[in-house]
UniProtKB/TrEMBL annotation, chain A:
It is found in: Cytoplasm, Cytoskeleton, Microtubule organizing center, Centrosome, Centriolar satellite. Keywords: Coiled coil, Cytoplasm, Cytoskeleton, Leucine-rich repeat, Microtubule, Repeat. Residues 350-378 are annotated as: Disordered. It comes from Pongo abelii. GO terms for cellular component: centriolar satellite; microtubule. Part of the neuronal tubulin polyglutamylase complex which contains TPGS1, TPGS2, TTLL1, LRRC49 and NICN1. Interacts with PCM1; TTLL1, TPGS1, TPGS2 and LRRC49. Residues 296-329 form a coiled coil. Subunit of the tubulin polyglutamylase complex (TPGC). The complex mediates cilia and flagella polyglutamylation which is essential for their biogenesis and motility. This is Leucine-rich repeat-containing protein 49. The gene is LRRC49. SUPFAM superfamilies: L domain-like. It comes from the Eukaryota.
TrEMBL record, chain B:
The keyword Cytoplasm applies. It comes from Pongo abelii. InterPro entries: CSTPP1. Regulator of the tubulin polyglutamylase complex (TPGC) that controls cytoskeletal organization, nuclear shape, and cilium disassembly by balancing microtubule and actin assembly. Regulates the assembly and stability of the TPGC and thereby modulates polyglutamylation of the microtubule, which antagonizes MAP4 binding. Belongs to the CSTPP1 family. CDD domains: DD_C11orf49. The keyword DNA damage does not apply. Residues 280-313 are annotated as: Disordered. One of its GO terms (cellular component) is microtubule. PANTHER family: CENTRIOLAR SATELLITE-ASSOCIATED TUBULIN POLYGLUTAMYLASE COMPLEX REGULATOR 1, UPF0705 PROTEIN C11ORF49. This is Centriolar satellite-associated tubulin polyglutamylase complex regulator 1. Interacts with PCM1. Interacts with TTLL1, TPGS1, TPGS2 and LRRC49; the interactions link CSTPP1 to the complex TPGC. Binds to alpha-tubulin. It is found in: Cytoplasm, Cytoskeleton, Microtubule organizing center, Centrosome, Centriolar satellite.
Length: 676, 326
């Protein structure tokens, strides 16, 4: 029958009536227990099953009542292919009304331009519906197809999975090539075996519970970063996650709990580029038989477990390390806090002293050294109060000693005692850098001789938060054996703000020939400048001091060294020679600046206290001398005044006596005989 | 030496005036302290050296502050020693803060009080912005006034405060002509507080002060000279005038005139010798960088001067080397 169809919506169809040769009827069976095959293969199957010629027998008639074309088939067709209908590549934009075909089981709408699923609600026996490659934006119109088992909606424009509530028998659901962002509304599909969501916009996988029959899940070419709920799929065997955004195994950790998984792909993910990828996956998923489409061998499994053990070891090590680091950090923070407290307290005392001094009436002639408000550390009774306050702080250590290869780091004044420990010769010999933080420089000074002995190779000293405030303090460093580098951190060391500090250091410690100060190399010109600036000071300090002062100052320094050495080694007589040698070596430094010493505040005040007694004695002694001298002087002056008179009287007496020669002679002889 | 006035003084007064006892006591004290060392070469020699050093002015080096400020001679010696030792710093042109100058002072006297340095700095900076940089000569002259006359200055400060607050300790009769001048000034449109005090009134109080008290004060004639050009002055203005006055500086005798402050030929020669010696000691180290150093803090670069100096190996006469910098 020749029929021409003129459709209002512009569809034109040429229809042949010549009968088709009988094609190989491929029975399209929907078998529940077929072995799994990837979704796309299924697609091909379906495409192969339908010959494109079937469309030849279709008759689409326009209806004046609605805008939908009405489908009519010849009765021959209907009898031949009673349960299947193919409307492939028919340039359909809408689903036509299909009348009189209510027993249809397979319906093919591939490669059209259909935007909405409509007009098929009467086909309640439909088992397979193929809408591949259309323009469908929303899943709808399927609520009556309760027998549907295969639903192919690949390559459409579907944004959301919905309206599948009644399709409880669904076996294959193909939604690849759409715009789906979320897995939802499929939890009731307990007979679903194959789910294809490749080439969508999924960013994560979850909400998979209820899919008790799912054996194959295709999620290739999405943007998935993590996977969840897969362990709720009891039958899942094949999981394809190629070309997603998975970067760590943790984000897919649920896979380890899935006992049914045997085949998985991760290629094209960031995780596959990692060095630990293969063995981590193998180690965590012992049940796997195939990874990235390649079978897993025993050898690989063995390697995986070995490597995984190594990883474990490394992790444990690094965990330990990080714990240690944390402890160190806490300790250092604690030390820093204590240091700050101490500095604040000391500053408060200083301001209090200042105020006191300004209030008290000043005797003009008595501005003596008692205005030592700049040196607050001398306050004795304060220290005990400070200690009590500090003990109230947390139980964490109050100091830290750290040896890191060639660096010895000391935090907090308690750390100085650690220099007394028995350091192995090897460790001590390796130390070339010693760093002091949160320790008063005056305390460090007292410990320098110990440093010299115990760590003979220490060439680089670093000071941070050590209260270096005076150029004088650098004099104390002269007693060391050698310094190549000096680093004074500006933090907590106000001396760095002085313009001349580096030159002074170079000048005073010129015998060390230092190479670097605070990271900058020392040049010839710097040394010359230092010499120019302070050379005269050295000259004055050595040549203009009277001899006895020189001896006493140098003697003081030597005595101090002995004191420390004796304290540390105990007073053993056999060691005295060694100490003498040491002191002789001291003289090796540039002697013209050896008199520039630094005495810590405490020692200085101690000395002044000691001298007070002597001064008092001297005063009284001199006063006595003066009294004596003035008495003698007075007597002398009195004598001077009286003497002329006395002399005249003496002469007069003598002259009177001798006036009468005869009687004088008789008197003398008488005196002589009387004497006998 | 044996002038009649000297002999006319009673003994105690004579001793006190020359501070003989201070030196005697100190000498004996030093002797006691360093008994073991001194016994090696004899007490007589010790006393010789001691008094020699007192005469030369080197006895105050590295001594405690109580001794350094005990007598005017000590103070003068200390000022002179400070000048000699750190003249090179000034010559270099560096401007330092008050704290740094204090540090330098402490190099010579470990327990020198910060207060004095602060007061000296206030004179230079006119009591303003205490963190400012000061030149060596400014600081030195101000420090001289502050240190040598510290007791005097304290009393002057008290007098100034009194005058400022209107209390006049002396009933001084001011000649009517000049007082008329003074009273007119407020009418010239300066409403509110006038700065400072009247110079002449101030000077008269000072004169009384100098008469009354025994400790050293600047020669009144010179003070009058310093005040001659001004009608009114502030406390720090007065001190600044004192410090800049050449006559007072010469009367003190510790420091040379401002123009000659950087000149000390004898020391310069000595310095050259030291520098050459240190250079020779250092040229044996080949790895030291020869380029000018960059210590990275603000200083005027003196590359040309340094390079010229370092190239000369034979010490040439000093006046070809150093360009005096003010």
């Amino acid at each position: 029958m020749d029929c021409q169809a003129e459709v209002n919506c512009g569809l034109h169809l040429v229809i042949q009536t010549s009968p088709l040769p009988e094609k190989n009827k491929v029975e399209f069976k929907l078998n529940k227990d077929t072995s799994s095959f990837p979704g796309r293969l299924l697609q091909h199957d379906l495409e192969r099953n339908y010959s494109s010629r079937q469309g030849d027998h279709i008759n689409l008639v326009s209806s004046s009542l609605s805008s939908f074309p009405i489908l009519q088939r010849s009765s021959e067709e209907k009898i031949l292919y009673s349960d299947r209908l193919s409307l492939e590549r028919q340039k359909l934009t809408v689903c036509p009304i299909i009348n009189g075909e209510d027993h249809l089981r397979l319906l093919n709408f591939q490669h059209n331009f259909i935007t909405r699923i409509q007009n098929i609600s009467n086909l309640q026996k439909l088992i397979s519906l193929d809408l591949y490659d259309n323009q469908i934006e929303e899943i709808s119109g399927l609520s009556t197809l309760r027998c549907l088992r295969v639903l192919l909606l690949g390559k459409n424009r579907i944004k959301k999975i919905s309206n599948l509530e009644n399709l409880k028998s669904l076996d294959v659901l193909d939604l690849h090539g759409n715009q789906i962002t979320k897995i939802e509304n499929i939890n009731h599909l307990c007979e679903l075996r194959v789910l294809n969501l490749a080439r969508n916009f999924l960013s994560h996988v979850d909400n998979l519970n209820g899919l008790d029959s799912l054996t194959e899940l295709n999620l290739r070419h999405n943007q998935i970063t993590f996977v969840r709920d897969v362990d709720n799929l009891p039958c899942l065997q094949h999981l394809f996650l190629s070309f997603n955004n998975i970067s760590s195994f943790d984000s897919v950790s649920c896979l380890a709990d899935s006992s049914s998984l045997s085949d998985i792909t991760f290629d094209g993910n960031p995780i596959a580029q990692e060095s630990w990828y293969k063995h981590t996956v193998l180690q965590n998923m012992m049940q796997l038989r195939q990874l990235d489409m390649k079978r897993i061998t025993e050898e690989e499994r063995r390697m995986a477990s070995v490597l995984a053990k190594k990883e474990e070891e490394k992790k444990r090590e690094s965990h330990k390390q990080s714990l240690l680091k944390e402890k160190k950090r806490l300790t250092i923070n604690n030390v820093a806090r204590q240091w700050d407290l101490q500095q604040q307290r000391v500053a408060n005392i200083a301001t209090n002293e200042d105020r006191k001094d300004s209030d008290s009436p000043q005797d003009p002639c008595q501005i003596d050294g008692s205005t030592l408000s700049a040196f607050p550390e001398e306050t004795g009774p304060l220290d005990s109060g400070l200690n009590n306050a500090l003990q109230g702080l947390s139980v964490v250590d109050t100091y830290l000693v750290e040896v890191d290869g060639d660096t010895l780091s000391l935090y907090g004044s308690g750390a100085l005692e650690s220099l007394d420990r028995n350091w192995s010769v090897q460790t001590a010999g390796m130390i070339t850098t010693v760093s002091f933080t949160f320790i008063e420089f005056d305390e460090i000074v007292q410990v320098l001789p110990k440093l010299k002995i115990k760590f003979p190779n220490s060439l680089h000293l670093k000071f941070k938060e050590t209260n270096l405030v005076m150029l004088q303090q650098f004099n104390a460093l002269a007693q060391l054996r050698r310094i190549d580098q000096l680093t004074i951190d500006p933090q907590g060391n106000p001396v760095v703000n002085f313009t001349l500090w580096k030159y002074y250091v170079l000048f005073r410690l010129s015998h060390f020939s230092m190479q670097k100060i605070n990271g900058t190399e020392v040049t010839q010109n710097d040394m010359i400048m230092a010499e120019r600036l302070f050379g005269i000071l050295a000259h004055v300090a050595s040549s203009e001091l009277p001899q006895y002062r020189l001896i006493s100052i140098l003697g003081d320094a030597r005595k101090k060294q002995f004191r420390y050495l004796l304290e540390s080694k105990g007073k053993k007589p056999g060691i005295i020679n060694e100490e003498n040698n040491d002191s002789k070596r001291l003289v090796g430094e540039n002697t013209n600046r050896a008199t520039l010493n630094y005495t810590t505040r405490d020692f200085y005040n101690e000395k002044l206290e000691e001298i007070k007694e002597k001064k008092k004695f001297c005063k009284t002694y001199i006063e006595d001398l003066v009294k004596e001298a003035t008495e003698i002087n007075m007597k002398n002056e009195a004598l001077q005044k009286l003497w002329p008179q006395m002399f005249i009287e003496l002469v007069r007496d003598a002259v009177i006596e001798i006036r009468n020669k005869n009687s004088y002679m008789k008197l003398c002889l008488q005196q002589i005989t009387d004497q006998k | 030496m044996l002038s009649p006035e000297r002999l006319a003084l009673p003994d105690y007064e004579y001793l006190a005036q020359r501070h003989v006892l201070t030196y005697m006591e100190d000498a004996v004290c030093q002797l006691l302290e360093n008994r073991e060392d001194i016994s090696q070469y004899g007490i007589a020699r010790f006393f010789t050296e001691y008094f020699n050093s007192v005469c030369q002015g080197t006895h105050i080096l590295f001594r405690e502050f109580s001794f350094v400020q005990a007598t005017p001679h000590n103070r003068v010696s200390f000022l002179r020693a400070f000048w000699r030792c750190f003249r090179t710093v000034g010559k270099n042109g560096d401007l330092l803060t008050m704290k740094e100058y204090h540090c330098l002072l402490q190099l010579l006297c470990p327990d020198f009080p910060l207060e004095l340095t602060q007061k000296a700095a206030r004179i230079v900076l006119m009591d303003d912005a205490m963190d400012c940089l000061m030149s060596f000569s400014d600081f030195l002259f101000a420090f001289q006034i502050q240190f040598y006359y510290s007791e005097f200055l304290d009393s002057v400060a008290a007098i100034y405060e009194n005058l400022l607050s209107g209390k006049n300790p002396n009933t001084v009769i001011v000649p009517t002509s000049s007082s008329g001048q003074h009273r007119q000034r407020p009418a010239l449109g300066e409403a509110g507080m006038l700065e400072g005090v009247e110079a002449s009134l101030f000077y008269q109080c000072l004169e009384n002060l100098c008469d009354r008290h025994k400790y050293s004060c600047p020669p009144p004639a010179l003070v009058k000279e310093a005040l001659s050009n001004v009608q009114r002055l502030t406390f720090y203005g007065f001190l600044m005038a004192l410090s800049k006055h050449h006559g007072i500086n010469q009367a003190l005798g510790a420091l040379p005139d401002k123009g000659d402050l950087m000149h000390d030929p004898a020391m310069d020669e000595e310095l050259e010798r030291l520098v050459v010696r240190s250079k020779l000691h250092r040229t044996s180290r080949p790895h030291r960088a020869k380029e000018p150093g960059a210590f990275g803090f603000q200083r005027r670069e003196k590359q040309e001067a340094l390079e010229r100096v370092s190239s000369a190996s034979v010490p040439t006469p000093y006046h070809y080397r150093w360009e005096p910098r003010e």
